[in-house]
Amino acid sequence: MSTLSDKFRNLAEYVGVRSKSYFHVPTPIAYDPDDILAYYLDQSERTEWRGMHDANGLPMVTIHDVTDRHPVMICFWALGQIERNRWDPSTERRRLIETTCDWLVQTQQPDGSWRMPFAVRSYDLPPGAPSAMIQGLAISVLARGFVLFDFDKYLTTAVEAMRPFRVDVSAGGVLTTDEDRPFFEQYPCLPSRHVLNGFLFAMWGLHDLIRLYQDEQAFSLWNDGLHTLVKWLPRFDTGYWSLYHIGRGSPNPATLHNHRLHIEQLKVLYALTEDPLFDKYCRRWEDYLRHRLNVLRTLSAKIRWTLTR
Question: Which helix (H) or strand (E) holds 292?
């Protein structure tokens, strides 16, 4: 969901200028096994949206000269509202959370999906494509909405949102199968580009349904995805940095922001599973970040991927 200005901020980070973009705010681990209202990463800073809002107060974003509601943006914003409401409850925050949940119920497609309103040019996707990341984030918002308001429609909609996880990308879903392993695609393009952070946001939505509802389908999808991650995580390691995605073509290293995000996501995975693999790669990727040469090395690789993708 990056704009031209975000690309300039990404570039500036390579020369030591830390981005203050709304989309690059810190999101440290916040997982609490005893409180489902605490999302896995703290999104509370994302409540400070200074752009446009619709008549109900939901944020709107402009990309490629098109202004619309983006489900990813709205879900992160809502998860921030839920987090802030935990320690600073207010009637207005509850209204915004309920409004978001109602919007998700109203805009869910018959196949259980929500759709990206903008083209994703980097992955040759037109407007209207689904995304596993959207599905996971929407489930996480609705699950917490159900806990807060006890409206059955929120839980029903969240359960319906699992349907695209079972449908192949070629048939309009978000699932690909590579080497007999399933992957939930943030960008459902062909050939596949397995994006790590989007896959993990999708997985956390499934995990919320396990926590909230003990849903067997969610457990099956979570378990399958976890086995994929354990098998493939080493492939996201270049020896000096993490990759944004794996797939055909030139390696695509993560931006500095996304590398930091990967580290926090691995901390969450270790907390959820206690699998030492996740702790191992978390520490390794933290170490990569300490070496300036690694940071600069990613820049040339990133330019190469941009020119050859």
Answer: helix 292-308
